[in-house]
Amino acid sequence: MADLIKKQEGVLKKLSRRNWLRNAAIMATSAVMLFLTGCTKEQWDNVKGHVPGGGSVGGEQDTWYKLKVTYYPDPLWAMTRVDYMGQIDDYMIIGNQYKFRLYPGQNGFNYLQLEDGSWMNLTYSGWAYSSSEEDRVGWKIVDGKMYSNYTRWKDYPLGCQWREPLAGFKAYYVGVNFGDHYVLTNCEFVPAP
User: Fold this and answer.
1) Which region among 6-10, 87-91, 163-167 has the lowest average model confidence (pLDDT)?
2) Alpha-carbon distance 90 to 130, whole Å?
């Protein structure tokens, strides 16, 4: 029992250290931007609140979005469907309309926080799922397709396939490397009500 308490305290210390480092980096970046732009602090405070999240995903951190996608429900059909991305049992699916909040990352990628506080990520095998803050992946929409910055899957856009797991829900599960016909297209973030 004592080991469990020590482990939980270590996790809390790690989170507070991460938050401190994040805040220090934000302050240092703000100071450098003030110096480089020649703005006064008051001018910078007005500007920084209106800078978009960055990258082609865009958005502001206080805004919630739904991820609208177009997909082929069956490889034999020529017709597509439009729906929103959601989550079931920690895996991302088409349907169930989850809300996302965007946080800027590097090189135009953004981190996607789900409304339950978890982050959209990829497994090693390429399935999209929700995870803790420690191992989040960046996302970017390029030409209507959504890519991650996960090294193994960076060249593969998100797609979906109908799956009927033995112990789970039947749904269109989201992942990568399914083939061109399964790629999600016309991906866009729509402000959620």
Assistant:
1) 6-10
2) 5
For residues 65 and 191, the answer to whether their CB atoms sit within 8 Å is yes
For residues 27 and 111, state if they share a domain.
no
> How many angstroms separate the first and last alpha carbons of the chain?
44
Other beta carbons less than 10 A from residue 84's beta carbon: 18
Cα–Cα nearest to 139, from 177, 184, 105: 105
Same domain, 151 and 181: yes
Q: How is 136-174 classified by DSSP, letter by letter? A: --EEEEETTEEEE--GGGTT--EEEEEE--TTS--EEEE
Owning domain of residue 41:
2-48
CA pair distance 160, 94, nearest whole angstrom: 8
